[in-house]
């Protein structure tokens, strides 16, 4: 730590020295003004007021003894105070220097060396803990930013390449303009728009900026609305969508966000269930929580992939590209973020490849809002 004229340790030491000097001057002045009068009064009460020689000698002895004792006492006290001040300011300077070096490391992008303030006060330890927590949060955010940039670059490659190839074929006359060509361009453009929207939502969720507009909502209405919206697409894909009715529970929730989560769960189930398969939606209520299960008998999930299926852009089979534009790779991450924003959770379960999967959206129900 720099010990220049403006350093905090130097200022504290100078300030404490001035306090000690001021205290010394105050004691000497007060003793000089008050001491003689008090002493003379006591001498007169003792019957020595009419003995000038005795009184003068006693006063001289009083002054001499008083000044010597006060001087020695003040010197000892001042030396002790300054020593304690010096030790304290040096230790404080060392702790502040550790915080300064930690800030420099963080600004340089090094987050793996937490600030240690061994032996410091509880206040400084709380500052160090808060600083280390901030550094860890910055590290997490930076890691997510880098991963997001990499993932986005990868995900943008396919639709951009498709649009580029289609436009080049149109320019070279290899491909004639027509409904199929326009449909391809529109599909890839829509995929880019969905990707941008989904990335915005999942980034906001990961940073704690996912806004909710809660109201008393019927969970049955939300689930039924999603099922109705997706039923035709399931029929077109040859997949049977079953909605098993459960108790109608009212809860405080953001209807649009819960619907968004349900849409992503149904889209994921449809994407991984072949023609002839089944997807079932179940609703239940137990111990203050509403559980919505989306169960399919499709491809299933390998055990090693289960902990990662809700990570954005994660693919259980990396060799399988998303060339059909059916998903952006962040749907489950958004559904999970919506659940957590409602103080709920989203869990995935599967008995293995080829044995289907179950996604359970759990939300806390509101007290006294159960509808019979």
Can you tell me the CATH superfamily of the largest domain? Answer: Histidine kinase-like ATPase, C-terminal domain
Extract low-pLDDT stretches. Answer: 1-5, 321-326, 367-372
For the secondary structure, the number of strands is 7
Count of all domains: 3
CATH topology of the largest domain: Heat Shock Protein 90
Tell me which CATH architecture of the largest domain applies here.
Answer: 2-Layer Sandwich
Shape: elongated
Strand proportion: 5-15%
Largest sheet: 5 strands, mixed
Q: Tell me the number of helical segments per DSSP (H or I, 4 or more residues long).
A: 7
- Reading off the top of the CATH hierarchy, the class of the largest domain is best stated as Alpha Beta
Strands in their spatial order, largest beta sheet: 2-4-5-7-6
Structure overview:
The protein is elongated. Helix 3 packs antiparallel against helix 4 and helix 4 (179-206) runs parallel beside helix 7 (331-341). It folds into 3 domains: 8-110, no CATH class; 144-206, Orthogonal Bundle (Helix Hairpins), CATH 1.10.287.130; 216-364, 2-Layer Sandwich (Heat Shock Protein 90). The protein contains 7 helices and 7 strands. With 372 residues, it is of the alpha+beta class. The two termini are 70 Å apart. The protein has helices at residues 8-45, 52-107, 122-172, 179-206, 219-236, 255-271, 331-341; strands at 215-218, 240-244, 250-253, 278-286, 289-296, 345-349, 357-364.
């Amino acid at each position: 730590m720099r010990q220049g004229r403006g350093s905090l340790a130097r200022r504290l030491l100078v300030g404490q020295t001035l306090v000690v000097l001021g205290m010394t001057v105050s004691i000497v002045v007060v003793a000089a003004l008050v001491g003689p009068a008090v002493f003379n009064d006591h001498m007169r009460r003792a019957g020595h007021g009419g003995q000038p020689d005795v009184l003068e000698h006693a006063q001289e002895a009083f002054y001499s003894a008083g000044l010597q004792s006060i001087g020695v006492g003040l010197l000892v006290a001042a030396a002790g105070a300054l020593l304690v001040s010096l030790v304290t300011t040096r230790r404080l300077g060392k702790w502040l220097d550790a915080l300064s070096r930690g800030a420099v490391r963080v600004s340089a992008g090094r987050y793996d060396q937490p600030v240690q303030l061994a032996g410091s006060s509880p206040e400084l330890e709380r500052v160090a803990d808060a600083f280390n927590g901030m550094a860890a949060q910055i590290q997490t955010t930076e890691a997510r930013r880098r991963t997001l940039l990499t993932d986005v670059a990868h995900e943008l490659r396919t639709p951009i390449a498709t649009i580029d190839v289609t436009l080049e074929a149109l320019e070279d006359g290899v491909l004639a303009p027509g409904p199929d060509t326009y449909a391809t361009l529109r599909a890839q453009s829509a995929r880019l728009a969905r990707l941008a929207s989904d990335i915005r939502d999942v980034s906001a969720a990961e940073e704690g900026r996912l806004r909710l507009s809660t109201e008393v909502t019927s969970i049955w209405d939300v689930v039924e609305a999603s099922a109705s919206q997706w039923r035709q697409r399931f029929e077109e894909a040859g997949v049977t969508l079953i909605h098993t009715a459960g108790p109608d529970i009212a809860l405080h929730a953001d209807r649009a966000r819960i619907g968004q989560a349900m849409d992503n769960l149904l889209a994921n189930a449809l994407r991984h269930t072949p023609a002839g398969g089944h997807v079932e939606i179940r609703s239940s209520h137990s111990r203050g929580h509403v559980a919505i299960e989306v169960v399919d008998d499709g491809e299933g999930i390998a055990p090693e992939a289960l902990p990662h299926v809700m990570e954005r852009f994660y693919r259980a089979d990396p060799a399988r590209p998303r060339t059909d534009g059916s998903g952006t790779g962040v749907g489950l991450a958004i559904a999970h973020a919506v659940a957590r924003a409602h103080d709920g959770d989203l869990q995935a379960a599967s008995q293995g490849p080829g044995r289907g999967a179950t996604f359970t959206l759990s939300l806390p129900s509101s007290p006294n809002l159960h509808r019979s």
